[in-house]
Amino acid sequence: MMRFLLPLAAFIVLVGFLLVGLNLNPRQVPSPLIGKPAPDFQLEQLHESEKTLTSKENLGKVWLLNVWASWCVSCRQEHPVLVELAKSGIVPVYGLNYKDERDLALQWLRQFGDPYTVSVRDPEGRTGIDFGVYGVPETYVIDKNGVIRYKQIGPVTVEALETKILPLVKELQG
């Protein structure tokens, strides 16, 4: 009897793990960086390659870091939302151009609009790795102390802005 119950129990446990896995939302993968300082970086600016931007330059203000690329289909989906957000002036949006060609990225911004206060280049993806980027687009809310407070995996939508990102930004700015 025991030799039949053991495989049955193992099967039930396996089915349980499968059901839990199927119910997970991949857009809600917790980031181990939430609540920790944003990784230090010093990267070349996209528009002015002789200039750089460091993570320390934004200390004292709440800001968004949006990871994007000209080859990213989902980035086109979120881009109008970011353009409108930038026009509102509520929070500065910085871009991290991820594993992209400089000329293609500049052309993309000319074509679709440039919502970024500054966009920096990460052609090898090293800074993206430091931030734990799974894929583009991803957006981080970073507080006045340089601590990552939220990570949006996938495109920023109007709903995500209204329900999560902007309420958090206003709380952090307060």
UniProtKB/TrEMBL annotation:
Xref: SUPFAM superfamilies: Thioredoxin-like (SSF52833)
CDD domains with a match to the protein in the record: TlpA_like_DsbE
InterPro entries in the record: Periplasmic_diS_OxRdtase_DsbE (IPR004799), Redoxin (IPR013740), Thioredoxin-like_sf (IPR036249), Thioredoxin_CS (IPR017937), Thioredoxin_domain (IPR013766), Thioredoxin_ResA/DsbE_sf (IPR050553)
GO cellular component: outer membrane-bounded periplasmic space
Thioredoxin domain mapped to chain residues: 32-174
Superkingdom of origin organism: Bacteria
Subcellular location: Cell envelope
One GO process term, biological-process aspect: cytochrome complex assembly
Alphabetized Pfam families for the sequence: Redoxin
Disulfide bond as UniProt keyword: yes
MF GO annotations: disulfide oxidoreductase activity
Keywords (A to Z) from UniProt: Cytochrome c-type biogenesis, Disulfide bond, Redox-active center
PANTHER family: THIOL:DISULFIDE INTERCHANGE PROTEIN DSBE
Family: Belongs to the thioredoxin family. DsbE subfamily.
Protein name per the record: Cytochrome c biogenesis protein CcmG, thiol:disulfide interchange protein DsbE
Organism expressing this protein natively: Nitrosospira briensis
Taxonomic path: Bacteria, Pseudomonadati, Pseudomonadota, Betaproteobacteria, Nitrosomonadales
